[in-house]
Amino acid sequence: MNNNLKKINVYAIYLGALILILPLIAFFINAFSFRWFYPQIIPKELSLQAWVRLKLIPKPGQRSIEGFLDLWTSNPAVIKALMNSLTIGILVTIVSIIIALPAARVLGLLNFRFKKLIIFIMVSPTILPPIAFVLGLNINFISLGFSGSFFGVCLVHLVPIMPYVVLTMTGIFANYNPDFEHQARTLGANKTRTFFLITLPAIAPGMVVAALFAFLVSWSQYLLTFLIGAGKVMTLPLLVFSTASSGNPALTAAISIIFIFPAILILFFTSKFVSGESGATSGFGKI
Amino acid sequence: MGGERLKIILSLTPPLLIIITLFFGGIFYGFLQSLGYQPAIGKYDINFSAYYNVMFSERYSKLFWTGLGLNLWVSFASTFLAAVFALFGALAIRKTFFAKTVCNFIYSLNLPMPHLVVAVGMIFVFSQSGLLARFASQLGLINSPGDFPVLVRDKYGFGIILAYIWKEAAFFFIILMSVLQSLGENFEELAQSLGANRWQRFRYVILPLVMPNLFSASIIVFAFSFGAYEVPALLGVIYPQMLPVMAFEFFLNPDLNARSEGMALSIIIALIVMILVVFYFWLTQAKIRKD
For position A221, which CATH number holds? Predict the structure, then answer.
């Protein structure tokens, strides 16, 4: 069959790609321009003012290494939110992988009664909307003292992430042959050694993808953090939302660029793993 | 055998515990509160008045039913359009052409993008002083920003639909690309050699082959857009209002009695999504039995 596209179809694809990245273009223009008034398409002057106002880049004249360090260690709101988002994301990812590992192994390798029911319970948070559980949970967390705490936010982030990691890793273990472990054991390796030398290398690629996307799920959580954090735990999505609502496009664009940076990075490094068949995408909710 | 059983139970308990206590526990507690059981403010009676108030009281019924209508319209329209765009994109992109890898990357770009950012992007592109309005003005199509159609924060939910199309088309795209890749071109070549034209190859060969995946992805997208908060909160208007925004606003209401109504709404949203998913499973099971 003819593998070359008709010219007109190629142009349609290019047009589609252009339309798809229009928001991204708008983000960059907004973040690096000053007084980008309607109806200009190209801004009259480029400017770092938004970044200076967010205290991410020092004022002109102070842009030395010390200037940057002084500014960043003064802990401006964006850096604080960024660190919170990073810490919560990394913590929750590690915890969820550790919890999911044994469960995924059992689900992927063994057959037992109620397996379907257990998988159904496990994936239900990917189908039902978060607003259905977080409103009820909120009041419980207040009475338990978890509300407004870092711990409470981490705990509630586990809910959307857990099903996703378990499902992805179950897929990995479904294609995994445990016989190599038996061989290592008969050759005299102990359990820990077998895990690190045999099991881990075999599941590592899939696990890394699962971890990266689990991190992204936590990274983009707005509603859960807002309700359980009770205004005391500020993360990047909360900052993006409040800045966007207050309506300053330059500041919103600058924070958004920081917010989407890891997403683009992760897509870049995992694009060859991310396909409809890999568990990674199913985590976005394939039933 | 007993050892294996213990191992299974021990391995599955931690994640199940998290899901059952936090997720189902949260839903259960929300349900209790929606029935009016609020020990925090000294209310212990159980009734369905919150549900009645939300759906039929003079104060809220109009808001609720228009909201439900908007919810259904936004979810159906965005799911359908995102799937159609992704299907055409995927069908075209699997052929070879210049800068294919770059295009592939751009078409998948919105997959890891948070919904919140996509919503902000829609404001930047489609608002009356946004990028498109500027293009239109330069081309002399409009004289002032007011001439540009209201596409974000509009009462028909166009902005919300656009945001979901942007975001979910990437999800459909990835799924379709992998299905098409695993199918190869053998079926189409066969159909072509038997004399099928382009439309017939699409309608009777490709579409039936990708339909199961497309359909299950649609359910996910529909369920998500039906219950998500961020996008309608940023791109919606006060009236008509999508149900998740309405539930959240009830919940944040300083009047603690409104909480029951907020909970009732969130339970209603969850119920509708659940009915939909059950219906989907029933449909696929029925089809499997028929085949």
Answer: 1.10.3720.10
